[in-house]
## 1
Amino acid sequence: METKNSAFKDFISPILVLVAICFAVTFLLAFTYGITAPIIADNTAKAASEARSALLEDANGEFEDANVELREYEPGKVYAVDCYKAKNGSGIVVTVKSNSYGGLLTAMVGINKDGEITGVQITEHADTPGVGTKAHDSTHLSQYIGKTDLGSNNIKAHADDVVEATGASVSSSAVHKAVYCALEQFKAMGGVN
């Protein structure tokens, strides 16, 4: 009889305790996620709205979803994820995912009603800090401002116009492709309607 109690105490009891702990932790994680998920979503939406306003100042912070078919330049590698147009018709802001060194980066590109790039901002990335992120620097991104056409998605073909960030050729190319995709989105829409 003692061996039965000893077996329960030595083997089954610890398993039951671990299962109970796992259930409790899972419940607490789900509860925490339920509370924080709407807050995170709200903060993400506010940050995106602020970025749009900074990229297209003439919009006066008033945007609406453009409700257009989004461009997929390279399936799974370079594609638009959203497109917002200014309510006053001053331009659009396109959010693009582009395959970079550390994985997909997210870029927002402002384009005015004349098809000129008004700004580029990298909002999310996993590139190497200090190396790949050189292509995300405002100095590097500012070389796109005022451009209406990049000719192609190949940054090396535009060495006179757009210079790669030193030591960050993959990240520079990813940014270039994202901006190119945004311009293609603008053209596919027929401009701002």
## 2
Amino acid sequence: MKITLLVVGKTTDNNINILIDNYLARLKFYTDFSIQVIPELKNAKNMRQEEQKEKEGDLILKQLEDADDIILLDEHGKEYTSVAFSEEINKRALSGKRKVYFVVGGPYGFSKKVYQRANSLISFSKMTFSHQMIRLFFVEQLYRAMTIIRGEPYHHQ
């Protein structure tokens, strides 16, 4: 199963990039994982929020195929413990899913079309995190999930 974190806009904080790269190096031993970046819209400051969400949504949907499993990282999604998240990842792998996309939207969230295309929504917290920070949290939790699946000692109960 190929897992992709699809994000709008690049991470500009070099400290966050260093930490993300650390987990990317670790993850390559467990799964086929990548981060795919959709460039930020030009002139986004001159757009209404809905217009920006629609344009970003169109760019997101262009990256996806019909058979792809799409999971939005969204404040209204289901919350998981780390163990439950690892079980969800394992369940998707065992179901024969070829490609799973976890998607981080732009600053205003997702368009209606993206919500309609999604297979599920997950939330990392009731709190709101920056779009740059959630990338780091996601790669750490994916790494943690892989170690839980393999019974390795990274996660402690």
## 3
Amino acid sequence: MVVKFKILVAGNKSVGKTTLVRRYCTGVFQTDTLSTIGVDFMVKEVKIGNEDVSFSIWDFAGEKKFRQLLPAYCSGASGALLLFDLTNAESMEELDAWVEVIDRNAPDISKVLVGTKADLVANRQVPKRLAEEIMSKYKMIGFWETSSKTGENVEDVFQALGAEILKRSLRRCPYCDHLVPKELYFCQFCGKKLINNSV
């Protein structure tokens, strides 16, 4: 049995969202990724603990004009990665707006803060202390500094998010007895409506 989780990836333009997702899903660092237009989507199946998990990862364009798309995709989401660029202080300042949209439309999902481009140490603009303050302010489960180029912490971020989701977001369908994310209104295995969205 594979448990399916919907993951949102949000943050400003050029912070490295698409590069991170593709590094995680393919194991390859791509330097020629184009800016996402609207929403991009990838799937990755992994093992977390004893569970087989399938992540459907929704990568949102970072331009403000595309932020209006995010609320519609929050439905059924189990987790979110909020990204900023460690070498760009402005990308950290915009995080409030992204978190606000997610918290308003999916208030109970697990959130992780991710600082990208950790390999560019000499160009760093965002101190770890500030990132940890943001993580605490929005009750995120953790903060990781990643590098899509070297692969540093890329797997760890998704593993940690998946483990947290498994711990707090599963319930058993009363019709087919499969474990499903509590955010869903319909069982992903038998298709039946989960009464009052709770069991």
## 4
Amino acid sequence: MEKLILKREKLLSTLDRIEESLLNIKNIEIITKSQDYFDKENLYRTFRDSLIQRFEFSSDLFWKYLKLFLADELNQNIEFNAPKGVIRQACKAKMLTEEDTSQILDMIKDRNMSSHIYKEEIADQIALEIAKYHAIMKKYTQKLVPTDI
């Protein structure tokens, strides 16, 4: 149980880092207007890449948290060691709605694309989706609380 609590705390912390990155990207216009020496496009790419990196490790922590929650809280035998199987099992256990499950599976697909195929266009597309993915991860991390907390 302690492992589940620690994993949840780590996940909440990484989700806070995503919020910081989303705010940084939102404020690029303000930053570049107030400081002449910033190149807006370069700063955007730096913030976007940071956001994607934070998204990658947050999404990894998220599905691993679901897996541990299934095992510790719902006493389910985990048949899968890969994210898609765990997410489908969490849906079957009614931990996730079907609509959210579909979006979380899209999130896993984007996470895999972000770490294996690097193209500017793909990075830009994924960055645009991260706020939505962040909201879903935060929703379930706050909803799925270990009984010992």
